[in-house]
Design brief:
40% helix; Alpha-Beta Plaits; 32% strand
Length: 101
């Protein structure tokens, strides 16, 4: 399994817009074979950092997802919403592997 860790720098004055964007993506990741673990929005501390975590069985499946979202209407609408609202300032993507007992 591979887990994608996304760290966002968001506009704190547009956190409601970012939350709407986040809610758009959770079912989309699941639709394409991933398992979304949720978005985590600022609560205490920094008011401009948000995180998302989602997993795929392997990196190959993640790459298939990345290709499929390029032509999916709902995914394109989510990208357009973020661009229109400018709620995301920047983001970083990292890949993690879980460790269990």
């Amino acid at each position: 399994m591979v887990t994608c860790y996304l760290r966002y720098v968001i506009d704190p004055y547009k956190s409601e817009d970012f939350e709407k964007y986040a809610k758009m993506w959770i079912p989309l990741v699941n639709k394409f074979g991933g398992k979304h673990h949720g978005y985590f929005l600022p609560h205490e501390g920094a008011n401009n950092i948000a995180v998302a975590l989602f997993s795929f069985p392997n990196l190959t499946e993640y790459e298939k997802y990345r290709e499929r979202i390029k032509t999916d209407t709902d995914c394109q609408a989510a990208f357009a919403y973020a661009e229109k609202t400018r709620c995301i300032i920047s983001y970083e993507r990292s890949f993690m592997r879980p460790v269990f007992e």
